[in-house]
Structures are given as C-alpha cells and as structure tokens.
Amino acid sequence: MKLIDTHAHLYTEEFRHDLAHVVARAKEIGVEKVLLPNIDETTIDKAKTAEAQYPGFFYSMMGLHPTSVRPDWKQQLDTIYEAFLRGNYVGVGEIGIDLYWDTSLQTAQTEVFEEQLAWSIEKDLPVSIHFRNATKEVIRSIKRTGEEKLRGVFHSFGGTTEELGTILELRNFRIGINGVITFKNSGLSKTLKNCPPDRVILETDAPYLAPVPFRGKRNETSYLSYILMNLADVWEKSLEEAARITTNNARDLFGFGSDK
Fold it and tell me: From CA 158, how far away is CA 148, in angstroms rounded?
C-alpha cells in the first residue's frame, strides 16, 4: 500500500527534535512522498533543508500563506518569487484567502493570491489552496485569473455539499481530505458521499488537525492511516483500493506519474 501526504509542515519547530522518527513511522505505513507547502519568507530555507535531508521523500512547494500577508506584501512576494524562480518546486502553495481570523487585509490577500495563481500558470504547476471562510472569494479569483489554465487542490476541505459542488465545477481541481474526516460532528463523511473518488487526495496538515484518536495533539504523517480508514469506510472500499485511488490522484495532480 503506497500513500502520499500532499500537505504537511514537517519542517516546523514541532518536529525539530524527532523528524527522523516521524519520517520512519511514515514510511512504515507506506508513505512514499510528503509535500511541504511553504508559509512565508521565514520558512523557505527550513523547507528546503528538510527536503535536502530526505531527497525523493520530501518535495517542496513555494508560496505565501494568506494569514502571513502583511501590509508590505509586495516585498514579501518579491522575496518568495525570487526563491520560486531559483528553486525546484512541485507546486505553488500554501496560497489562498482566509476570512476566518481577520478580514482587514482581504483586498491584499486577494491580490497576493491572484499573483501567485499567475505564477502557477507561468511555471505550469498545481496550486495548494487555503480557503477558510472564503470558498466563493477563492473561486472568483480562480475564474478571474484563468480557470482553464489552473489546476490544484482545495486543501483541508471540510465544507458543505453546496461548497463541494461549486469546487467540483472547477474540473481541474481536487479536494484535500485530512483528519477533519474523523471528527464526529464535522459532517464531512456524509458530504464526501457526493464526491467522485477521482477528485480526492489525502493530506495531514501536520502538525495541525490530528485525527481521532490523537485530536488535540501534534499531528504527523503516519496518522494518514486513520484518514485513509475513514475514507475507505465512506467509499465502502478496501484500504488498498482507497489508497490506490487517492495516491494515483495525487501523482496525477503533482506530476509524479501513476502506478496502476
């Protein structure tokens, strides 16, 4: 059974003392790749250092997270774009719009997001999208920038059937499913019954959103197995089949090639 964690921040301080053990546990359950989305200017080198430690296992993305957008965002983007051009990345992320914590920089977040969408078109790379409380706003930006030229994932999906429907209308986009599927009151299992399996990829968002029975603790990539178990139950498929589908979806989206 082969798995890909398409979104994990394993380069952060939470893993400084035991990253080797975290990687070993991930490999034990069949994880073959982990994608590392960037956060801001301060994490560029951290992600690249982790990638260099585990080549062929860690793969970096580059982007500016919406909650890290500051009033001097143009300088932030200059720094990140320079790194983007200089490095080798599998995607543009983590990018998007977040209207949960603070709406005062919504206009700036939108401009930053759309500029980074343009980067993905420039380099023909998928995007990893953060869209908390901003599904409609994100979709409007995608359509303004060029829906037909973009592809990617709506990271950490936990929305309603209606929100799922609007995302599925974007034919080149998938949804990322993480520990939220294990939360009793999330309603996500019911929503996913309306989602075609070929539109789903797996992620952890480690160190955040640990699945039950680890909810509230540090998340890590090996917990992908709990997410897979819940998804397989929703689909009424074997673990092996659910793994095969989601892993091939991730390989297809991020250009790793499929394994039928």
Answer: 25
pTM equals: 0.97
For residue 91, the SS3 value is: coil
Of 132, 123, 70, 62, the closest CA to residue 94 belongs to 62
Q: Distances from the Cα of 215 to the Cαs of 33, 92, 178, in angstroms?
A: 23, 28, 12
* Res 101: pLDDT: 87
Mean pLDDT of 115-127: 98
Distance from C-alpha of 129 to C-alpha of 63, rounded to nearest angstrom: 10
Distances in Å between the Cα of 238 and the Cα atoms of 47, 148, 200, 241 are: 34, 34, 16, 5
Asked whether the predicted pLDDT for residue 258 surpasses 70, the reply is no
Nearest to 127 by CA among 89, 161, 100, 165: 89
DSSP state of 98: -
The 8 Å CB, 24+ separation contacts for 184-191 are 184/212, 186/158, 187/160, 188/157, 188/158, 189/230, 189/233, 189/234, 191/159, 191/160, 191/161, 191/164
> Which pLDDT tens digit goes with each residue over 160-175?
999 999 999 999 999 9
